[in-house]
Amino acid sequence: MQLKHNVTEFILLGLTQDPVRKKMVFVTFLIFYVGTLLGNLLIIATIKTSKALGSPMYFFLFHLSLSDACFSTSIAPRMIVDALLKKATISFSECIVQIFSLHFFGCLEIFILILMAVDRYVAICKPLRYTTIMSHRVCGVLVAVAWVGSCVHSSAQILLALSLPFCGPNVIDHYLCDLQPLLKLACADTYVINLLLVSNSGATCTVSFVMLMFSYVIILHSLRNHSAEGRTKALSTCISHITVVILFFVPCMFIYTRPATTFSMDKMITVFYTIGTPLFNPLIYTLRNAEVKNAMRLLWCKKLTSNDKR
After folding, report:
1. The dihedral of CA 122, 287, 113, 241: what is its sign?
2. For the segment 111-130, what is each residue's pLDDT rounded down to a tens digit?
3. Could you tell me whether strands 9-12 and 171-172 are parallel, antiparallel, or unpaired per DSSP bridges?
4. What does the angle CA 123 – CA 128 – CA 130 come to, to the nearest 5 degrees?
5. CATH code at 187?
6. Domain hosting residue 31, numbered range
7. What's the rounded Cα separation, in Å, for the pair 125 and 119?
8. How far apart are CA 136 and CA 108, in angstroms?
9. Residue 1 is assigned to a structural domain of this protein
10. Is 126 among the domain residues?
């Protein structure tokens, strides 16, 4: 059976249709996006230039910041520009690209958070074997697997999207293209696609969240045997990671574990993990991490010194 793709573009309603509120959306999310880019790029530059941040934890943090910057870039710029337009449209092909990038970098963030939890587990529970287990080669392979796994996940989303026939309505009551709002526009029974979406995105989010929380329970339990100083430092790092995990996963699970139904709050919750979390992550990791703050100060001092010499 040949699929009907009579629809060549979609109309995005965005967060609001009110002209005054659209200007507020433009200003607010432009500030958020600039803050997200600056924060994550600062972490990337700091880790790349600092010899003190050469441990696996910062290697994974580098990739987390990279995925955050790309994740936000796949959503925010179009959302900001669309807020200035009376009628925001997105072509079918652009919609497919946005779905791919949204799920690719979102899934990459999930995998990197899992790797960071593995790193903390080995560092705290197997300290004597840490350098052997988490070698540079092993970390590189793990990150490569994360990138490939993210590609597989997002490719599955694209296959699901392309299997939907669109032959009528083309108005998406959202500010982005994703499978859930597209399911409403498909001129076919989407029950099976719903189940596949839950088993793919929903299960990925839920299982990963449970695994991560369980691993941190084990890590926190094992901290009892550490010295007071070591316990405080490890606890501070783990709390940062747990905060990021909760901020990212709870909204994701709310959206992807029940795609057949929609609520009025869905758009705002999606804003939280697509725009908010990439902005919060740099703040959480820098404000709670003395090593990163010290490395940033050194980077800033070097920049000032080089400017003075000129």
Report:
1. positive
2. 999 999 999 899 888 888 99
3. parallel
4. 40
5. 1.20.1070.10
6. 9-309
7. 10
8. 19
9. no
10. yes
